[in-house]
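Annotated sample (chain length 226).
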Amino acid sequence: MKIISKNHVFRRPLTSRPSTDTIVIHHSAGYDMSSEEVHRMHRNRQTSNGTYWIGIGYHYIIRQNGDVEEGRPVYAIGAHAGSSINRTSIGVCLMGDFDREKSYPTQEQMESLYNLIIHLFNRYGELEIKGHRDYMATACPGKNVSLEEIRKEVKQRMSMSNQYKIKVNGEKEVAVPIDNKNDRLYILLDGEMNERHWVQLRSFVDAFGFDVEWDGETNTANIITK
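Output written by the structure step:
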């Protein structure tokens, strides 16, 4: 999971979360902004008592091209869904306005969102997946973002990845969805026009002249590229 790191400067020291149990999904309700732009906007926002926000409130920004950019450090309490849930949650913001008619996250955004959620599950354990609207009077992350579909897709991918694994040269584990169909392993890969296709693992490695070793005890396919 590639996350583009940022060196945001905050107005005041950050506070660590006491625990983590939830991922809260947002949309920007605007154009495709970078993490730096959101940080500047949040730093210039005043509270009701006249003080300024310390900086970006989300932990991750997902751009429309699928790039995942770091916001507030993931260990820190965010500012995105209300003080009570901020203390135990990670805020993820999809760039775009998905409450407008026929306005949906891009395929690249959704793919990155699934991968990011699984990455966070691997770090913190299984977390609840909620929307900003679950905690405040808002439509965020928009009527065109189905939290139920996100939960379903993540569960399916976690189930597949927990059952079968792929490693490269016996070391690096590859985070791609894997499925077993008629005793043949298939992996989900990017194709042309941003489409995704199930490809038989044996055909994939043969096409590149690689070899593959199967470990039946751990259900791991080891791709040999050297």
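Annotation: Residues 66 and 109 are 4 Å apart (CA to CA).
Annotation: The mean pLDDT is 89.
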